[in-house]
Structure formats: C-alpha cells, structure tokens
Amino acid sequence: MNTRSASHAAQRQLWLAVGFMVASAAMFAAMAVMIRLASAELHAFEIAFFRNFFGLVFAVPLLLRHGTGILKTDKLHLYLGRCLIGILSMLCGFWAIVHLPLAKAVTISYSTPLFVTILAVLFLGEVVRLRRWTAVALGFIGVLVIMRPGAEGFDANTFVALAAAVLSAVVAISIKVLSRTEKADAIVLWTTLLWVPMSLVPALFVWTWPSGWTWAWVAAAGFFGTAGHMFWTRALKRGDASMLTPISFMQVPFAAALAWWLFDEVVTAWTALGAGIIFVANAYIAHREAQVASRAVTDAEISPETQKR
To answer: Which of 33, 45, 115, 161 has a beta carbon 3.0–4.6 Å from 108's, enabling a disulfide?
Structure first.
C-alpha cells in the first residue's frame, strides 16, 4: 500500500469512528427519553435492569451470527471490572435522568471528556497537545453554558450525575483497552451478559411489575441502549478515546430537542448557545484529527513532530 492509499485509509477509519460516535449519541439520547417515560411507573434502578435485560435480548442476534466462540476470552477479569464500574455509572446516570430535567442530566454527564482525556494520557499513553486540550475545554464550557450551575445551584441529584460522568470516563478507557484484543461484538455481548445479573440485585429492592406502555418503554430502552453501545465500541475501536468522547457531546442537543418535543421542557437560548459551542468544538476536533491522521502516514518518516496534536 503506498503512502497516499494509506493516508486515505487512515482518514476513512477516522471518519467512520466519528460517524459511529454520533450515531451512538443519538441512540443514547433516545434511550434517555425511554427511561423518562418508564419512570412514571418504575424506579430508576428497575428501569436499569429492564434496559439490560431487553438489551441482552436484542444482542442475541450477534451471538447467533458469531457463535459461542466469540465469548472465548482470557480477559474475563477486565470484563468484570469494566462491567461493575459500568453498572454503577448506569445506576447513577438513570437516577439523574429520572430526577433532573433531561437536558440538564445529559449535559452534566458530559464533564466525562475531561476525565477521559486525563485517564487516556495516564493509562493509554495517548499524546494530547494544546489544541485538543483547548477544544475539550471549549466543549466543557458549552456544557456549563447549558447547565448554568450558578443560576440553579447544585443539589444531591446533580452530584449523582457528576459521579456517573466520572465512572463513565473509566468505562471508556477500559473499553479502549479491551478493544485492543477483543472484538467489538464480543465486548457488547459480555457487557450485556454481565450487566443483567449485576443490575438485578439493586432492582429487587424496589421491584414492581411494569404494566401497559411501560413494557414498550423499557424494551425500547434496551434496544436503543444496545444499539448505542454497539456504535460506541466500534467508534473506540477506530480512534482515540480522548478524541472521540467529546464528539458524544452530540447527545446534548439530541436530548434537548426530544425533551422539548415530548415533555415540553423549554430549550432556552442558553441551551442553544451551549450546544453551538459544543458542536464547534467537536467539529474542530474531528477536523484536526483528520489532518493528524493524514500527516502521520505521509510524513512520519520525515519528522516525529507530525504526531503532535
């Protein structure tokens, strides 16, 4: 393969990663809406269990497609640790979605990129230069514009949402580590298999059987959650965790629009402004990474400086 073809292949992989992450954001925004709808009857912890149960149902075709051989792994201890942290993040996140305005709950969760960037540098050895730090900081400013914490203050539920963001960053790093040797579909299958029993334990303490449309909401939450997870793992397989996670900020405008449409939650000028800032930051990150991917392939033998972000 010549350098030109290699450059095009690298850029294609990068833009696929970006596309997968945007699709993941849309799926997770839809899942948040299903959670809010189901919360009219069910506790957040029980919704988490049903999301995982139906998520496993929708993941069965993957198992039929690949066969049980895809579950063969010597990384079970990593899966267990990743899933335990993931379920704690999920419980905190679901609690926040149920008890906070939807747009606010989602935006608070997007303090995650700050933690992902730090962890990616510390544990994955990813090189993050000033421009990407600046873009991530800009995205975080956009989140703060939407949150306007000084205007409403922080309550206990806000701290729960923040805890979900921190734990989610650890999950993102763990998936990146697993994706070095594990197939994306294997990560999805192992995660859904382990999350079902893990989430059942807290759900039993608040159990009540769903009825009517609530069954549809929790089933849809499972579908959208599994689809979002599939897109997410495929994105992280193709790009840096510290680059891709800010792109998942797109969940914020998706969720805000759905909340306005379905729950009459007003999308304020602050929300629109914050979403615009986040979009600009994400667009710059994707553009910058495309340039880096091209130069790293074509100029790598000329100067190691081409690796800098």
So the answer is: 161
